[in-house]
Amino acid sequence: MHRRPLLRGLLALTLAVPLAGCVASPDGHRAEAGTPTHGSTVAPASEGPAASAPPQLPPLPSRPSPTKPLAVGVRELNLSRGPDRPLPTTVWYPAGGAAGDGTRSGATPAIGRFPLVILSHGLTGLPQALAPIGIRWAAAGFIVAAPAYPHTKHDAPHFDISDVVNQPADASYVINEVLALDGDAGDPFAGHVDTAAIAATGHSAGGYTTTGMLSTQRDPRLRAAIVIAGALLGGAYTGPATPVLFVHGDADPTVSYRGGRAAYKAVPWPKAFLTLVGGDHGRYLATDGVGFEQTIRTTTDFLRWTLYGDTGAKGRLSRDGTSVATSRWESRL
Question: Cα separation of 186 and 150, whole Å?
Answer without folding.
Answer: 28
